Amino acid sequence: MGKTTTSALVQQLLPNSQVLDAEKVGEVLMDIKPGLPVTDNFQHWDPWRPLVIETARRVHEFTGGTLVMPMTVLVESFWREISDGLTKHGIPIRHFVLHADQETLRDRIQNDKVLGPSTFRFAYLEPYAEAARTWLHNDAEVIDTTGITPEQAAQRIADSARGR
C-alpha cells in the first residue's frame, strides 16, 4: 500500500481536501538541466524544501480546506524545515506515517504491479528503519499497514484528522 493510493482515498473521505504530492515538485526540479548537482534523491537539492513549503502555502491560500501531502522524508532536518515552514504560514499539520515491517515492505516493493521492483525503493529500507527508530515515529501518528487495506488506512487517517 502506497502513499499515493492512500492519499487519494483520504481525499475522498475528507470534504474540501486536495492532494498535493510533494514529489511533483521534485519532478519539476529534475527537469532542470544542466544546473543541479547529480543526486539519487531530489530532496537533497536545497530548492526542494522551500518550494514544497511555498507550493503548499499558495495552494492552501487558493483552495482552503485540507491539504493531503504524501511524501517520505527520512532526514529529520528536512522534515523540520518543511513542518516549521508550513506552521509559519499557518498551515496546520497532522503527520502520519504509513508503517509496515521490513519483510512486508520488501515484499510490496518486489511485487509492485505498477512500478515493479525498484532498487531505489529497496535502498531506502534501512534509512526508513533508522528514521523510525530515532525520530520519525516519535513525531507522527503511526498507522501500521502490515495487515490492513489501503481503504482501512485511509479511514484511520480521516477519522484521526476529524478528531474521532
What structural keywords apply?
P-loop_NTPase; ATP binding; 164 residues; nucleotide-binding; ATP-binding protein; two-stranded parallel sheet; Rossmann fold; 8 helices; mainly alpha
Explain what the structure shows.
Keywords: ATP-binding, Nucleotide-binding. With 164 residues, the chain is mainly α. It has helices at residues 3-13, 22-30, 48-63, 76-88, 102-110, 119-123, 125-134, 150-161, and strands spanning 17-19, 66-68, 96-99, 141-144. The strands form two sheets. A two-stranded parallel ribbon has the order 1-2. Strands 3-4 form a two-stranded parallel sheet. Helix 1 crosses helix 8, helix 2 crosses helix 3 (48-63) and helix 3 packs parallel to helix 4 (76-88). The radius of gyration is 16 Å and the shape is globular. The two termini are 23 Å apart.
In short:
The chain is mainly α and 164 residues long. It has one domain: Rossmann fold (3-Layer(aba) Sandwich), CATH 3.40.50.
